[in-house]
Amino acid sequence: xxxxxxxxxxxxxxxxxxxxxxxxxxxxxxxxxxxxxxxxxxxxxxxxxxxxxxxxxxxxxxxxxxxxxxxxxxxxxxxxxxxxxxxxxxxxxxxxxxxxxxxxxxxxxxxxxxxxxxxxxxxxxxxxxxxxxxxxxxxxxxxxxxxxxxxxxxxxxxxxxxxxxxxxxxxxxxxxxxxxxxxxxxxxxxxxxxxxxxxxxxxxxxxxxxxxxxxxxxxxxxxxxxxxxxxxxxxxxxxxxxxxxxxxxxxxxxxxxxxxxxxxx
Length: 265
Description:
Elements: H1 2-27, E1 49-54, H2 59-65, E2 68-75, E3 81-84, H3 86-95, H4 107-110, E4 119-120, H5 125-128, E5 132-137, H6 144-154, E6 163-167, H7 170-179, E7 184-185, H8 189-200, E8 213-216, E9 219-220, E10 223-224, H9 228-236, E11 240-243, H10 251-256, E12 261-264
Parallel strand pairs: 1-2, 1-12, 2-5, 5-6, 6-7, 8-11, 11-12
Antiparallel strand pairs: 2-3, 3-4, 9-10
Helix pairs in contact: 6-7
């Protein structure tokens, strides 16, 4: 009998706590963040931006034809900001049995003279100034923030009006945001896990979204990532989301969710 009473009390307290969290979360006010990166774009499925992933191999052609681009970038040990094809670099490291991360290697060691070799961001100053860009920082370099900021100043993009910064790791975005709070940031892998964990236990209202934009492919462990629940919460918070990189055949379904943008190979 005592065990039954204790169980009932525990369940009652847990239920009350759960309800309080949801009520508290829903009561939080959120305003829309107006930023130049979001300007002149209607937030509808017909007007979703399409960000094309560019690699060193197709960079010159892509910069002449694409308005919105996605660049995988990295920092070298001699403090150069480079554009890379991450799949090419990963395969090259595997073939040559190189264990050092990109940020532990010199630019001269990474640049191999092939068509898809890494290139310096600073060499594309004129071509990048009129684009909307997603910069995806690879690895977790110690001096990544300083090198990124210095390079943006060098190429005239220090205002941050035309780019969004993302990284799979928390530190690059945290460090950069401490210096450049007005830049636009996307979600890291740890933040994605926290969001989905709270959604799975039905208290996504209590989630903390540090990023300005939620970015993720269509699926999450073979399940739809952008669920109705998540999209409803993003809209309540005036948070934009970008879907991608997309797989073949996903464009129609992605646009139907009315994202701010999609990322394509």
